[in-house]
Amino acid sequence: xxxxxxxxxxxxxxxxxxxxxxxxxxxxxxxxxxxxxxxxxxxxxxxxxxxxxxxxxxxxxxxxxxxxxxxxxxxxxxxxxxxxxxxxxxxxxxxxxxxxxxxxxxxxxxxxxxxxxxxxxxxxxxxxxxxxxxxxxxxxxxxxxxxxxxxxxxxxxxxxxxxxxxxxxxxxxxxxxxxxxxxxxxxxxxxxxxxxxxxxxxxxxxxxxxxxxxxxxxxxxxxxxxxxxxxxxxxxxxxxxxxxxxxxxxxxxxxxxxxxxxxxxxxxxxxxxxxxxxxxxxxxxxxxxxxxxxxxxxxxxxxxxxxxxxxxxxxxxxxxxxxxxxxxxxxxxxxxxxxxxxxxxxxxxxxxxxxxxxx
Length: 359
Ligand code: NAD
Fold this sequence. Notes:
Layout lengths: L1 E9 L3 H19 L2 E6 L4 H7 L5 H8 L3 E6 L16 H10 L3 E7 L12 H4 L3 E7 L11 E5 L2 E5 L6 H16 L4 E6 L5 H14 L6 E6 H10 L6 E4 L1 H14 L7 E5 L4 E5 L16 H15 L2 H16 L2 E2 L9 E2 L2 H14 L2
Parallel strand pairs: 1-2, 1-3, 3-12, 5-10, 8-9, 8-10, 13-14
Antiparallel strand pairs: 4-5, 4-11, 6-7, 11-12
Helix pairs in contact: 1-10, 1-12, 6-7, 8-9, 10-11, 11-12
Nicotinamide-adenine-dinucleotide binds next to loops.
């Protein structure tokens, strides 16, 4: 099986962690008899320096003509003074919009060797494995009217939460399908006691659920969910929610697991999906060979499972990550007493060797 993949390393530590993911995916290819064609494109600050634009047409064409996109991270202090439209982060919105990426999937899974790294007690977080499915292209971030108006007494800031039947139904299908491959429980999070848009959300999710009788559906108000994630995160399997609530809850769920450097994400929609770690370009540690590459490597595993249906291959990477942590190797962000500190490249190489050696 040959797969054509767009590689957008971007800025900061994106440039250090992408090569680690690629070397491991290539090793998986050798072991399982697949070949991956890597096609590099410029994005973010890197693209601004070369072309003046954060998402050049050439990069967009490359992404659209690929079977998946692997993205590092974008942004950094060098480009912070630019107009909003010209900033590196605009590339992410452009890619989401142009590729029709309406669903953002963020698994928050605790690697048992890292239970001590969480700010919660080990007995609360032991074994958590939550997938947050966030609607990504609708809701209050995009609804009209929006803006700041001048009034006789000052100003008025306006944003509008809007969801249509179609937008809710398609994200609900993503969540139920994901649950079918997991523990068959979906918690739909809304604020239906106050918001009409949430009332519709709940109604449509109930309707879509009829297609998935093998999945259990629960509803939860967002304020309760924020609390339950801290109190008893093991009760969740798949959480599906709107753009705004998902933005907040996915960060909360991620931090349960201890480090921002560990977690992958997928954004999917029509044909091409995009995979990236949840963190940014980390300018404070860029170029020092200290960044944790595991979130990027796990994003590669997610790509194998979700875009290419290569579950066994993805599992081989997951297994190697678990083993390397159990052996006590840690990058700086997850270092603990009694563990062995390694740099970005060494962590990548150790995971690579485990992938090669597993039989
Ligand atoms: P960040 O995620 O880059 O960094 C936050 C903190 O976490 C930093 O202390 C950083 O050193 C640490 N960190 C992040 N990833 C790490 C890793 N893999 N290993 C070890 N430590 C890690 O967030 P920020 O500092 O708020 O943003 C920096 C830049 O990244 C900004 O320009 C921001 O706009 C951009 N950003 C990009 C994305 C993206 O590309 N998807 C996401 C968030 C932020």
